[in-house]
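Example: Sigma-70 family RNA polymerase sigma factor.
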Amino acid sequence: MNNGLKSSVPTDREVILGILNNSGDTLNKLYKAHFAMILQFILNNNGNEDDAKDVYQEAIIILYNKVKEGNFELSSKLKTYIYSVCRRIWLKKLTQNSKKTGNITDYEDVFVVEEDVEHHEEKDAAFVKMQSALEHLGEPCKTIIQDFYINNLSMQDICEKFGYTNTDNAKTQKYKCLQRLKKIFFQH
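Written out as structure tokens, the predicted fold is:
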């Protein structure tokens, strides 16, 4: 491979493998590779550079999650996929802010990514709702749930941390906390 400019733009396959291997370098290169195109698109369609950064980051997260879930099939160039996701997100934002969406200026071919954007937003909303439910849970439940599900502590660790006499007691407490969390989650 020559060391010209081309080497800094990863191939689609490199990006997908990079994401699967948790390569920060790949994400950085990907970020730099197509940002100018998205910036141009947003600037020409009632947006500014900050809008472009927000939309682009969201699109990269959607791509990242889709690849990680293992059900990503690239039916076009990655550049087109990212462009389509960004376009979809921006159209949605414009509609929400009731700005003109009648004549969007396009640079790339576009294909349907509705489902990917919707799925991402649902997951995002559920996460926010879960965070809010956790806040209402109170102690020690909040910490027990976070330690077990987010920080991956074992029941033994939790048992020692909270001073339970044995892991069965800790499990019972975790179960009660979980029931309470579900109740709060579905009330919100």
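The chain has eight helices and no strands.
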